[in-house]
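User: Show me a protein chain along with its predicted structure.
Assistant: Here is one chain, sequence first, then structure tokens.
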Amino acid sequence: SYNYCLDQFTLLANGELLFMSTTLYFAKLNLASEEIYKIYKDPQKRIELKLALSESLRQECHWDKESFFIGDDGIPVSQKVEYQLRTLSIDEDMSYAEGWLYKKSILRYNSLLEETKELVPKGVENTEVIRFYFDLDHELIGYNTTNRFGYKEFLEAFVHVINLGLDDFEPEMYFTISLCSKGIGLDDIKEALGEIGKIKELQFIIQPPNPAQELLNHLQELGEGRLENMDQANVTRMDVTFQSTGESGLNLDSTLIDEELNKLQGIHQALSPEEANKNGYIKVTAVSKTGRKFSSEEAKPFKKVINDLLGDFKDACKDAFTELLS
């Protein structure tokens, strides 16, 4: 049996189910292979993205993730989770796709033996499912979550099954995924970094944007900003990490770090830091010496609340896609 968003229902005294509100999250897939620079120079090649994603969805791949934890007896225990893609439909013009992502796992618990009063570890099979709606023209995904299948776990699983479905696709393509945010600016990022305390690690991640047509027209000539340098070096992702083991942590006001922060504005003159952050083209993460964390991606996640997952889902996703692209 499937646990289908059980947190979205309330069981009434008369046995009827009352549908509660559902929170939808949104994500952006981004091409992270050298094909992106070819698309900048020839926007007509953008159709290859739709073909690739449609082909991957038809493969309905699954991904097995294995992790380990230490059991009560001190022995490492393997835990396997299987994620299975199920594609329900793809429009004839490959504009939208709809489907499910299943998570199959073993829920572990302890059972009390009345005779000996000992706790005995046991497990039961469990399946969670998330519904998604996919805008193939803009690589945007809307999806719900469940108590045991969260919004960040969906991102990791979804991008894995998409990339697995592209193993034999030509030209070679590889995608990353980012949670869509409301888009925070450079000043907001600097302010948030200053609020988490002494920082021991600060990371900047930049990747070439996968833009809509309007921005794509601006990018046909790459003669400006950091994108030109990334294209010349054939760089599909750039990470810059600062670390400090000193008691006072990193100095955010230093020329070195301040210049790196300000470079986030220089990807392309037609792309603001807010827009780049909203779509996952830039990310800033930090960890303080006390363990507090900051992520520009998760600072203000873009969400929608609906009352009916079955009836309102697609319309709510389309409305959100329009808002994200505006």
